[in-house]
Design goal:
single chain; Rossmann fold; 213 residues; binds ligand L45E5XJ5; 5-stranded parallel sheet; alpha/beta; 5 strands; binds adenosine-5'-triphosphate; 11% strand
């Protein structure tokens, strides 16, 4: 079984994906980390004239295990990720690993931006997790402040709005809600309620498929 989960930054898709992965005993891939790793590796080179070429080589030779998650989950790595994600050859290099992970025996859960549209258009279940920018900025600010990172709500809101806009008009992406995705707005939901709502959606899609000859 393949479950594809998409949504904008800090919508809670990673939290829901991890919980669903545990529930269904499926391996999980946070595909944003791949783009973040390339962005992080390129952080001092993004102003160079030939940065795109270097980003492609970085993506083609990426070893995610060489990076620390704390370095990848910063706001700066998110902004750099969004920049390298606009290079079609970077996307192509990272797609191979994602498709391979998705189609392993027994299935998988992947979360990102183009999982239901480009990586796994054949997924058994597709969810699109969203929340308004204000709620997402509050969550991300708390997440970073709890980790001791000194950022304000206003800074994070501005970054989230910019990243939303950059991602929305990424010419190399397929960042739209797949027509067969189920939408879940978590703006007013706690983590637990959001997870239960996602689980209900997944179970209802699976039950429907089981009953369809
Ligand atoms: N429904 C919710 N209510 C409150 N906080 C939440 C909710 N869902 C997630 N969070 C918190 O918001 C933060 C961001 O969540 P998460 O990492 O799951 O988002 P994401 O969409 O995967 O983000 P990214 O796109 O940057 O990877 C985390 O600290 C998480 O605990
Ligand atoms: N499938 C994906 C996943 C992510 N991106 C880009 O990476 C940025 C960081 O992603 P997070 O999920 O960790 O926030 C994101 O803003 C996208 O630009 C992508 O292109 N495709």
């Amino acid at each position: 079984m393949i479950i594809a989960i998409d949504g904008p930054a800090a919508s809670g898709k990673g939290t829901i994906s991890k919980r669903l992965a545990k529930h269904f005993d499926l391996p999980h891939m946070d595909t944003g980390l791949l783009y973040r790793a390339v962005g992080f590796a390129m952080r001092d080179d993004l102003d160079h004239p030939n940065w795109e070429e270097k980003a492609v080589t970085t993506a083609q030779t990426l070893e995610l295990s060489h990076y620390h998650e704390d370095d990848l989950t910063t706001a700066e790595a998110g902004i750099a990720a969004s920049k390298v994600a606009r290079v079609p050859e970077v996307r192509a290099a990272l797609q191979t690993a994602q498709k391979h992970f998705a189609h392993q025996k027994g299935g998988a859960i992947l979360d990102g931006r183009d999982i239901g549209t480009r990586i796994c258009p054949d997924a058994d279940v597709k969810l699109y997790i969203t929340a308004d920018a204000h709620a997402r900025a509050q969550r991300r600010t708390k997440q970073l402040n709890d980790r001791g990172v000194d950022v304000t709500f206003d800074e994070i809101l501005a970054q989230i709005e910019k990243r939303d806009a950059d991602d929305r008009d990424n010419p190399a992406g397929a960042f739209y809600v797949a027509p067969d995705a189920h939408l879940l707005d978590t703006t007013k939901l706690s983590i637990e309620t959001a997870f239960q709502a996602a689980l209900e959606l997944v179970n209802s899609v699976l039950a429907q498929k089981k009953n369809t000859p």
